[in-house]
Amino acid sequence: MQTIGPGVGRIVLRPHGSEAVFSELSYAYPLKLLSPKVSQRNTAVVYVLSYGGGLVGGDQIKLSVEVHDGSSLVMLSQGSTKVFKTRPGHQLAQGQNLEMNDLTCQHFDIEVSPGSSVFLLPDPVTCFRSAKYNQVQKFRLSGDASAVLLDWITSGRKSLGEEWVFNRYYSLNELWVDGKRIARDAMLLEEEIPIQSVPTRTLADRLQPYSCYATVLMYGPLTQAISRTLTAEFEAISVFKQHTRPSLIWSISPISEGEGCVLRVAAGESEDVRRWLGRALRPLEGIIGMDIYRRAFA
Amino acid sequence: MDEEEAYILLLLSDGNLPTGSFVASAGLESYATHGFLTAGGPSGSINDKLLAITEFVRDSVMTYARSAVPFLSDAHREVQRHLDAAPVDQDAESTLRILVALDDLYEATTLNHVARRASRSQGVALLTLYSKGFSQPPLPDQPSSDIDARAGVASTLIDKLKLVVRREDTPGHLPICWGVLTAALGLSVERSQFLHLFLHARGSLSAAVRMNVIGPYAAQQLLLHTIRPLVIAEAEHCRHLRTGLRQLSAGSDQVPLFDEDVMTEGGPAMTWPLGEILASRHDLQHSRIFNS
């Protein structure tokens, strides 16, 4: 087996008979990929994990994925992706850049061929105090491929009083279809630079009263029914003047003339967001199978 | 700042300019309807309201600046270069192609449909404003000067851009059109950035006055004292932000490309997900006075 750099992984999925088979599944520390056996036709599941259940400053995950010829891939995590704070002086992996050693990066590049589909349904990211996290997820779809991408973040370890106290969180999700970038969802969360003679407004002030924010990007024929249902549900809402902020709030916007959509949800507790998503995305059960769906939203 | 630039600034900061901004609240109306201005209780004091409005403007200016200023700056730079090259290089096609690429990228980046709609209509209004309101009036028998030549090139470019927008080949978003307009009028990129953010902040305060949340005196007071340092800080912070558009040689036939590394590390980004959700819910309000 050829050696690969730290944190690098590669997944290639193809149909074989009625099964989806990994023609390649490789990974290197601290990345770990596990693929449990599932019974859903032409569908495979992969758990994207890290050793020790979290990422630390300096970790760089670089995962490339190809889904071919009508197969379906479901990508999950096991518990939230924890990004630990910078550990000054921790041992660097070989070849790591010293200056970058406090930044944690996770980079997914996912190619989906015509008729194939990918469902990225991880648990939320939790950045601990002072963590710096950079996440890039690029989906390149061809023809009538479909994709669902869930990206969510919690405010931190609330039990330890951590509420939006990480150093920096940058998340970029891109959807390319036939070589054209049709959606670029870039979110940067960090404390603002102090302004002289102006009281500080913290990141927590800006994001309150919610402790969890989720974004779902959907595109392609397999997502049309969910997208239509949610849009109809959304448009039926009529908001009268409220005097208190809602405990959960969501929105949906079409992208690329309704070929796709972006769904956003925020709530006070991440479990409320999970429950809401579990209900909203339930039609996926019919595509990836009930067992797999429950793994994602159990 | 020379007198000419000061004059243009006065013109552009006129609240009566027909730019359609008076029907935009940039999400403030939805913010208020969803109970975010009255978080301290419905019977909050005037100070609570001023504070709540200030917080909205602060978060709104920040997220808008980080998402839009890079586009404004790149569009301004491209048009300025086009005008500087005139009349040697009067081929507007390569400049147009770059502007369309920026516009497409802004469309892909602006994922909230209400903001997208408002940005398109205000962008198109700016192009119309230039060709109907700011282009040279036709005066017979006047010898043409270099300034006229430059203005002529600008008019041609903007007319062509307008045509592309009308054919719906490109959306015509506000930050791009603002960059084009201000470059055509000879405003420096720094003034253009600053004025754009100032107008965004002032627009929110005007909306607050129309919504009867604060009075017109309080709005002026906030704008002069409380909001000023916020706009200054944000303009300073975003001065050097760019989209990642590659520098192409003038008249280049290449398709404009973006530097993916710049886009991945520090490209335009939204900083206020709550604002996105609330702004996207604008049309759900049972009664509303604004379009966004």
Automatic annotation (TrEMBL), chain A:
Cite the Pfam families for this sequence.
Answer: UreD
Which keywords are on file for this protein?
A: Chaperone
Hey, which family's this protein in?
Belongs to the UreD family.
Xref: HAMAP family = UreD
Q: What is this protein called?
A: Urease accessory protein UreD
Automatic annotation (TrEMBL), chain B:
Q: Does the keyword Chaperone apply?
A: yes
Give the top-rank taxon of the lineage listed in the UniProt record for this protein. Eukaryota
- Which InterPro entries does the entry mention? UreF, UreF_sf
Q: Does the keyword NADP apply?
A: no
Q: Which Pfam families match?
A: UreF
Keywords attached to this entry: Chaperone, Nickel insertion
Family membership: Belongs to the UreF family.
- Cross-referenced PANTHER family: UREASE ACCESSORY PROTEIN F (PTHR33620:SF1)
Q: What is the name attached to this protein's record?
A: Urease accessory protein UreF
Tell me which species this is from.
Somion occarium
